[in-house]
Amino acid sequence: MKNTLKIENLQCIRDDRILFENLNFSISNGQLLQIEGNNGCGKTSLLRILCGISLSADGLVLWNEKNIQENKSTFYSNLLYIGHNNGVKRDLTPLENLAIARALASNPSSIELEEALDKVGLYGFEDVATGTLSAGQQRRVALARLFINKAALWILDEPFTALDKTAVADLEKLLDEHAQQGGMAILTSHHHIKCQYLNSLHLG
Fold first, then answer.
1. 53-80 pLDDT, tens per residue?
2. How many Cα atoms occupy the beta-carbon half-sphere of 30 within 13 Å?
């Protein structure tokens, strides 16, 4: 199915300051887009607007030519968002966290939860409290959601934070595979990303 996320004349104002305005771009099947810019330029604010979490001062976010604010159920069934915060419960195990994430997914995959954790390098950590894991390991628990949710659109805010070189390379490979399979992703990162299907957009 052909999917497109289109941004038209988007403006973002925070604390009476214009972070960006007249922003236009689109992304469709098989494309990855990295949002670049200095700290404070509005990268996270943009991602929150794209997810429908925050509202823009002006402009539209369209999923398949329909305003996401008027088409929320269809849009959210195609969206997987991982923000700065990992969105995991520290007192639950990685396995329990993934079980909840899959139960909430609109389009869950059939992969075994243990296999998803194995793919992010957490074999043997399935049944420990997530709060006892390192920052990088907790980030991997969050990223394991990419394997259990077949959403077409991934929006990822600094997904490489706290990851070691091996995990970074694994995530780059996963992003390219997602694009090859017809998915799309928008992400921010200070990391130099090595992905075949990646383009970039500079804010500020």
1. 999 999 999 999 999 999 999 999 999 9
2. 3
Q: Which of 98, 111, 10, 108 is nearest to 52 (CA)?
A: 10
Handedness of CA 130, 165, 187, 183 (dihedral sign): negative
> How far is Cα 180 from Cα 175, in angstroms, rounded to an integer?
9
Token pair 């990162």: residue: 189
CA 138 distance to own-chain centroid: 16
**What pLDDT digit, counting tens, does each position of 132-190 carry?**
999 999 999 999 999 999 999 999 999 999 999 999 999 999 999 999 999 999 999 98
Per the CB < 8 A criterion, the answer to whether 107 and 154 are in contact is: no
* Cα(13)–Cα(55) distance, integer angstroms: 10
CB 99 within 8 A of CB 38: no
Is residue 45 within 8 Å of residue 14, measured between CB atoms?
yes
Classify domain 1-78+152-204 by CATH number: 3.40.50.300
Tokens matching residue 165 = 């070189």
What's the rounded Cα separation, in Å, for the pair 131 and 186? 28
Distance CA 120, CA 62 (A): 32
